[in-house]
Structure formats: C-alpha cells, structure tokens
C-alpha cells in the first residue's frame, strides 16, 4: 500500500506538544513507549495458538490467581511484563500499578525515576482470548506528588488514589481485526490504526465524537436478578421498544471485552452498563476504578459522552484502594444522564409500576 500523508502517532504527539513550549518531551516519550508495548501485545495476540500463549498461566502447573481472585491467563502475565519492560527504563515514570500486580511496581534502582504514574489493565477481556474474540489494553497516566519527585522515595498505594479528573492522558489499544490505539491527552480523542507494514500507528480517526442519541445498550443480562431498581427500570424501558415509554426499539450487544464495547460506542453511539449489583456484597461492581473506569471515562467525556457510577460522575470519585471495583455506566450522554436521573429519583413504589408487573422480563 502506498504511503499516505496521514500523521503518524509520533508526528501527532510532536505537533500537540508545540502547544506547550516548556514541555520536556517526557510525556511524548512515555506515550510512544506505551504504544510500543501495545504493538508487542498485538503481535503476541495475533499469533494465538502458534505462539504458545493460549490458556492459563501455570507457574507450578497449579495456575496463578491475581489480587482480584481471577485466574491469570498466560497473555495477562505476558502483557503485564511487556508494559513494564517497555516503559520502566526511560526515566519518565515514578512507578506503575496494574490489574495483575497486587502492589505498586517500583522502578528498579538502576533506572532514573520520573514524574508520571502509569496505571493499566494489560489485557482487558482476557476471558475472550481463547475463543479469538477482540481484547485490548487500557492505560491511564497521572502525575506523581511533588514530594515523590523530590525525595525519590518508593511509592505507596496512596500515591495512586487520585480522582479521574487528575488524569493527564488515557487510552486503550484494541486488538481486533485491525489494531487501534485510541488516545486522549485532554484535548479530544484521536484514533490511530496500526499499519501492519510499517508497524506505525497512523491517525485515522481525528477528533472522535460519540453520537448523542442511540438505540443500542450493552449489559450482562444474566445478572438482572441482582440489579438495583433504577437499572432494571432502564433496561425494561429499552426492552419495551416502540410501544414502551421510550417509543423506539433498542438493540443489545455484549462482547465481554469492555475495550471492544467502548470502541463500538465511540464509533456509533450506545450505552454500556456494568452497574453495582447485589451478586456479591464484597464487590461493589465488576470493573476496576483506576485502570478501567477512569481511563474509559476520560475518553468518553473527551468525546462528548459521559461516564458515571449512576450516582455521580465517574471522574469525580475519590479512590480508596488500588484495585477498587465500582459500578460503571458510560456512553452517549443523553442515555447516561437518563440512568443518573433514574438513580436520583426517590424509590418508586414498584407494585404501581407496570414495568415490574407480571409480564415484565426483568420482574423483581
Ligand atoms: P479483565 O479481562 O481485564 O478482567 O476484564 C474483563 C471485564 C470487561 O472487559 C468485561 O466488560 C467484563 O469483565 C465482562 O464481565 P462478565 O464476564 O461478567 O460478562
Ligand atoms: Mn479489564
Ligand atoms: Mn485484564
């Protein structure tokens, strides 16, 4: 294929940086290292069974379990290592945190330390790896406190507990039929497609905007008996279609790779819910605040959409722990706002609500 005049990710970042004449270039270097990590993971995923990377990680043939209590796949562990190795050496990072590591990762002493924190989900949707369905990586970049920069002390959990509004940048890579990198540096959202010949991310989707209105929702309906009333109401109204209160038919999707759902929603609108539910009272939601909800939340907001817990804007939540789980709703602004309204309304007398009556699919 001939070379086009599209920007590469490098060109895009250099041109962005010109807006900040004092910038050191550390940030751009970090993003390019993250992009290289994503390219390496993309190749590992693409080789599939041929690469010997399918199945569970099995250190002593007993498998391994991460801090979330989830069985780690070989590719979860490999992707985590790739993120670390590609980014730890350059002097841009003060430390990292990831879904696959219980504790913050300290930059080894032989490398200089920098002013950024990298928080990531190295492989999202990893239950889909073995069935050849799209997976992705998610990352969030924060600044570390000035005292860490000055003292060079090791990081503690509290250094990472910053609300999503403090993110400097966020993004994801999607390993689908094509590999894409979608990035925000706080100035809109831009999508880059990996040119497999050049090994370069090329700007293909400038200034992405989520369509405001939608007729598509995504939720794991097998949890419906555990949902709270506002979520039941929202889904019931969607299912009621043309003859229901929304007066239009809805379509439903569930990929079980949040990155893939986020990307679909960015491209054609929609709403995603993994709400807080009563399935397991020790887990207030399925997805993790720092490396899933916040970065996807920043991308949604930067693309004109919205992200919320259902009760408050996601990016305003003050985190309380590194691997904190949270209810997550994101996508087209009008739908997310509607779901927030349903949560804000006083509890409705369900016996008077026809949606929870006999014929309702999601009857309490
Ligand atoms: P991860 O593979 O990083 O643990 O995340 C998987 C997440 C998310 O991508 C997806 O939306 C959700 O888990 C799927 O959950 P269910 O299996 O409950 O549908
Ligand atoms: Mn994930
Ligand atoms: Mn993961």
Notes on the protein architecture:
- The chain is of the alpha+beta class and 364 residues long.
- It folds into two domains: 9-205, 2-Layer Sandwich (Fructose-1,6-Bisphosphatase, Chain A, domain 1), CATH 3.30.540.10; 216-356, D-Maltodextrin-Binding Protein, domain 2, CATH 3.40.190.80.
- It is 27% helix and 20% strand.
- It has eight helices and 15 strands.
- The protein has helices spanning 9-17, 26-47, 74-87, 146-151, 229-240, 258-268, 289-302, 333-344, and strands spanning 93-98, 105-106, 116-124, 135-143, 169-175, 179-184, 189-195, 200-205, 216-219, 251-252, 271-274, 287-288, 306-308, 325-326, 328-331.
- An eight-stranded mixed sheet has the order 2-1-3-4-5-6-7-8, sandwiched between helices. A five-stranded mixed sheet has the order 10-9-11-15-13, sandwiched between helices. The chain has a two-stranded antiparallel sheet with strand order 12-14.
- Helix 2 (26-47) runs antiparallel to helix 3 and helix 5 crosses helix 8.
- The longest helix has 22 residues, at 26-47.
- The chain is globular.
- The N and C termini lie far apart (56 Å).
- The relative contact order is 0.12.
- The mean pLDDT is 93.
- The structure holds 2,5-anhydro-1,6-di-O-phosphono-D-glucitol and manganese (II) ion (MN) (2 copies).
